[in-house]
Amino acid sequence: MINQYETVFIATPVLSEPQMKETVEKFKKYITENGELVHEEDWGLRKMAYPIQKKTTGFYHLFEFKAEGAFINKLETEYRRDEKIMRFLTFKMDKHAVAYSEKKRREQETKKVEE
User: Fold this and answer.
1) How far is 24 from 102, CA to CA, in rounded Å?
2) Could you report how far apart the first and last alpha carbons of the chain are, in Å?
3) Which helix or strand (DSSP H or E) is residue 60 part of?
4) Which residues of the chain have pLDDT under 50?
5) Is the CB of residue 91 less than 8 Å from the CB of residue 16?
6) Which residues lie closer than 8 Å to 97 by C-beta, 6 or more apart?
7) What is the pTM of this model?
8) Pick the CATH number of 2-114 from 3.30.2130.30, 3.40.1390.20, 3.30.70.60, 3.30.43.10
């Protein structure tokens, strides 16, 4: 059964801009090969609540996608294998989360049009 998921990963801050783009593209390609990408957000370099691997900042990136449930284990295995990824979180969105996410995107698009 196809479900909608949201995954956020934190990449190590020592990456250069091209390395970060390459990492994002790698996971984006992996998701689109196994499902449908719905939305993507680059949150950039942010300070973390606590140090991870002695680092206090990280590059945050979010993907919202539709895929089979079995794909999630494969995706998370790929995250674990990539030394550039410090942390990740993937969760299945229920209908309320999907509706909220769509509403939020519409509001952002309306804001951009008004500017």
Assistant:
1) 22
2) 40
3) strand 55-68
4) none
5) no
6) 4, 6
7) 0.87
8) 3.30.70.60
